[in-house]
Design brief:
404 residues; alpha/beta; FAD/NAD(P)-binding domain; 2 domains; 5-stranded parallel β-sheet; 3-stranded antiparallel β-sheet
């Protein structure tokens, strides 16, 4: 297994239950991405009680809080120790090739032959930065979320944050609070309240069954797998962080960054439509929650149904911004992440570099599996609480493959 994050450790635990000999290879330390590739103030979007792994629930004193990165690293490392996971750390995979009867894995610490391979290296190995970044004029400073640590490391002056997923809105909020003026370029996004009817919105996602919807039940699966992360932040106050809140704090909202020409950033003019679509989808989801509560759990003590104000569009959002004027001194590319399969020498990637798989089973490469990718087997697949169910499904398939 390649990768010793929460997903790799979950599948390791289930393999141990089935007495399947295995080894995890990790390029750094356990939970390496959480240790090395996150900004200082980041907290999980999911409440602590949802940070459960096979046989290892959250046992802390704050189940409704949101783990900081040091707390999450401690939690995952504790699971690795409790499950006695066979991890070989500080070992980098350089190549995976097909051989008769299995696979040949080359690393910087020797070669391994195995009958099966599990790709547990995650969905966020490298930042995805659109090609327009090549036209950014000097001397603007450009960073990705992997390179951003805190606002004080940015130059003084205006900041353009590109992307309005969870990462984009959190960084826009933090940078604005530092005293730097922020312009946020917004494209497709997923709006959610932090709480609904007195419960965390992710409580509703799990209990109502939305998160358990299987990949083979989703009509537009590829679209679902590409959706940005919902606009949420984990704070002690369980505060909602959406575009209305950011505008109220002074963040300037503009449309999707469409191009950079002659040093000028050009933004799309479809903000109103983007806002209406995100509001409509949120309302449909809340209606689903209400229907579930009425039809299946009428005994629950819940606050009355809520309706939220629509996202307010600027009266006249600007369509261009001269990046040479000095108004903007840095750009943060919060435009998503991608897996990194440069070491994979098996022809199982599509023209976009994405893994071709059926619910985590790489059908064109018998004995190869993946875990931890968006909507892998369920809508909750990339979240910590989604790892166990996916791991049990995949190990069942893997055991049958070994027996054959």
């Amino acid at each position: 297994m390649i990768g010793a994050g929460h997903a790799g450790l979950a599948i390791s635990s289930v393999l141990t239950e089935h007495s399947v000999d295995h080894l995890l290879i990790e390029r750094g330390e356990v939970a390496n991405s959480w240790r090395r590739e996150r900004w200082d103030s980041l907290h999980l979007l999911t409440p602590n009680w949802q940070s459960r792994l096979p046989g290892y629930p959250y046992r802390g004193a704050d189940p409704d809080g949101y783990m900081s990165m040091p707390q999450l690293i401690e939690h995952i490392s504790g699971f690795a120790a409790a499950s006695a996971a066979p991890v070989r750390t500080h070992t980098t995979v350089t190549s995976v090739r097909r051989i008769d009867g299995g696979y040949h894995v080359m690393t910087d610490d020797g070669d391994i032959r195995c009958r099966t391979v599990v790709l547990a290296s995650g969905a966020a190995n490298v930042p995805h930065v659109p090609g327009v970044h090549k036209a950014v004029p000097e001397p603007l400073v450009c960073v990705t979320p992997f390179e951003y640590h805190n606002a004080e490391r940015l130059p003084r002056g205006g900041v353009l944050v590109v992307g309005a997923s969870a990462t984009g809105v959190q960084l826009a909020d933090e940078i604005q609070r530092s005293g730097r003026p922020v312009t946020l370029a917004v494209g497709e996004h997923v709006r959610l309240p932090r709480t609904y009817r007195g419960r965390d919105v992710l409580w509703w996602m799990e209990r109502s069954g939305v998160w358990n919807q299987r990949y083979d039940e989703i009509e537009e699966l590829e679209r679902a797998r590409r959706l940005p992360s919902p606009q949420l932040v984990g704070t002690p106050e369980r505060a909602t962080l959406d575009l209305n809140v950011l505008r109220g704090a002074g963040v300037e909202i503009v449309g999707r960054l469409a191009a950079i020409r002659d040093g000028c950033a050009l933004f799309s003019g479809g903000l109103t439509n983007q806002f209406a679509l995100a509001d409509l989808k949120m309302q449909r989801l809340l209606d689903t929650f209400d229907d579930w509560a009425i039809n299946t759990r009428p005994e629950l003590e819940l606050a009355p149904p809520e309706r939220f104000a629509p996202t307010r569009a600027p009266a006249a959002p600007r369509l261009s911004l001269d990046l040479r004027s000095g108004e903007i001194r840095s750009i943060v590319w919060a435009t998503g992440f991608r897996p990194d399969y440069r070491w994979l020498e098996v022809p199982v990637l599509n023209y976009k570099g994405e893994l071709r798989h059926e619910g985590g089973v790489v059908v064109e490469a018998p004995g190869m599996y993946a875990i931890g990718l968006p909507v892998l087997r369920r809508r909750k697949s990339t979240f910590i609480l989604g790892a166990e169910d996916d791991a049990r499904d995949l190990v069942a398939h893997l055991v049958r493959h070994l027996a054959s």
